[in-house]
Amino acid sequence: MATLFPHGIVFDGFLYRIIPGGYAVIGAAALTGAVTHTVSTAVICFELTGQISHILPMMVAVILANMVAQGLQPSLETTPDAGETLLRKPGFSLSSKFKSFTMIYNTVI
Prior knowledge:
By secondary structure, the chain is mostly helical. The protein contains five helices and two strands; from the N terminus they run E-E-H-H-H-H-H.
């Protein structure tokens, strides 16, 4: 954008400069929002920068990144349980500590 519009974009008589650092902050907020599955990273980045002009693109980028991340996340139905796969491994046996823990757990429940 900065190479296409080196002097900025004129809208309603105002000149809006293109700041490449704004794109970096929006990208960082989108990545962090996708990894943590939260939208609050946009609010945190908005408060850090203090630029009201970045809030709308930041919210859109974080929400879209969140949607993509949730779409790529495997569901619980297709992911095998970690405990079941551990018990199926050859040579795995429960020690006496785990047997006593299982006995206490079964007694409590």
